[in-house]
Design goal:
The chain is an alpha+beta fold. It contains 2 helices and 2 strands, in the order H-E-E-H. It has a two-stranded antiparallel sheet with strand order 1-2.
Length: 82
């Protein structure tokens, strides 16, 4: 009989822990957008979104500026409408 793998619960941090992790990710990425290199209007983006069970973990986060972040989500939205 085949065993059923249990899904691991996703990691979702409380607000204080997430703020600390966000700062760690910004520092790791050199306080620069990892797409265009700017240092202005930085945000932290989930590579695998929370809605797709993406974790609040450093390996799932990347620094993007607000413009690149919006472009990324616009691309995703367009791909999902097809």
């Amino acid at each position: 009989m085949k065993s059923i793998r249990q899904r691991k619960p996703r990691l979702r941090l409380n607000p204080d822990s997430y703020r600390k992790l966000r700062t760690e990710v910004l520092e790791r990425d050199g306080w620069r957008c990892q797409n265009c290199g700017t240092t202005k209007r930085l945000q932290v983006h989930h590579l695998r979104s929370r809605s797709e069970l993406g974790d609040d973990a450093a390996e799932n986060l990347i620094t993007l500026c607000a413009d690149c972040h919006a472009q990324f989500h616009d691309l995703l939205k367009g791909a999902n409408q097809r």
